[in-house]
Known about the structure:
By secondary structure, the chain is an alpha+beta fold. It is 30% helix and 18% strand. The chain has helices at residues 2-40, 49-55, 58-66, 265-280, 294-308, 310-316, 344-352, 367-370, 384-393, 397-401, and strands at 90-93, 97-101, 111-114, 123-127, 133-135, 141-143, 147-155, 162-170, 203-204, 233-236, 239-242, 245-246, 287-289, 330-333, 358-362, 375-381. The strands form five sheets. A four-stranded mixed sheet has the order 2-8-7-4, covered by helices on one side. A four-stranded antiparallel sheet has the order 9-12-11-10, with no helix packed on it. A hairpin with a 2-residue loop joins β11 (239-242) and β12 (245-246). The radius of gyration is 30 Å and the shape is globular. The relative contact order is 0.12. Bound molecules: zinc ion. Zinc ion is lined by residues 197-198, 289, 325, 330, 332, 378.
Amino acid sequence: MAKNKKKSMQNAAPAILLALMALLLIGMLAAIIVMMKRQKNPDSGNGTPAQIAEQLPDSSAAEVTTTENSTTTEETTTTTEPLPPGSVTGISLSFYSATMNVGDGAIMPIVTMLPDDAEDRSEMWESDNPAVAEVDDIGRITAVGAGTCTVRVTSVSNPRVFAEVQITVKEGAAVTTTLPLSTPPQTVPDTSAAPETTSGSSTAQSPASSEPASSQAAPATTATQPAAPRSDIEVINGITYVQGVLIVNKTYSLPSSYNPGGLTPEAQAAFNEMAAAAKKDGYTLTICSGFRSYSYQKQLYSNYVTRKGQYEADRCSARAGHSEHQTGLAMDINYAGSSFDNTPEAKWLGENCWKYGFIIRYPKGKEEITGYKYESWHVRYLGKEWAKTIYDSGLTLEEYFGITSKYAE
Ligand SMILES: [Zn+2]
């Protein structure tokens, strides 16, 4: 008997051990399952699709609903494979909404694929309602009939990334109803916005610090005449300065290698100061286009030529090397198109930008002088002293300095 009892106790020990091991195993399995679930979760980083979607411009968020009407498009917003290196992870546009009239010339947003070094930046375009607006494969949007629709650009290399433009088309007093892609600009509507601009001229080099009309006579405060104190023009490393002010226009260009890499810190700081002041007055100012490299401008200009022909392109877009945006001292505020003209923000900008070191570079009625149509949105940083001087003079930079703005051609 006693012997038996002992034996049964000896048997019990391994049984307990076994049970413990089984418990442990179950616990480990549970932990593994939890970890696997986490990996699928977007929060876990590594560029999962959900994360990428979050990097899209705001406008895209609202669109997800719109997509349902369209026949194609992606429901496929959720994949788990990691992106190949060099993939596009975001798309930004020069504008996200536009109002057009039937018969207007086409408009084309500037597309920026992020990151800068993404390898395959090919785009696919589609309109969810071609009866309202059509889009071609380079992004030219043409109004077809009254209504609203969404035009989407999607990255070919990473179709999960897209951006959209909301288009409203009105039955306008259209001169023609044919698709005007290559038509001359007459009809250019406010909405023709788009990117360009630029190219103006002149940029101040060390603005704030440089004393403006130092030696030369201060400009007459109300000069109506275009002759300004002519001063020496210096060219240093291919860059032209007039009285120390960097000038870029149709006459004076920048070398293709000139690349500050972005807005200059002074220009950015001045913008920030100006935007804060505008905010206090109840207006929101944003930069819709700041620095543009030589190569980017080259592409932009050629898009314009394709779209509108060279004559019209030259009125609103600069040839490479002739864009003021390449200086890092020029920027387009809020919306680069004539629909910005009559906004309260445009009015505020026109009246106040000089206080922060900016001038409206291409004023109304000065196209023959500056070489560009009126651009209420394009400001050039000169530094406060120069900006006040130019503003007070009522002159353009070309007039003030007595210089031209014409392509040698
Ligand atoms: Zn501009």
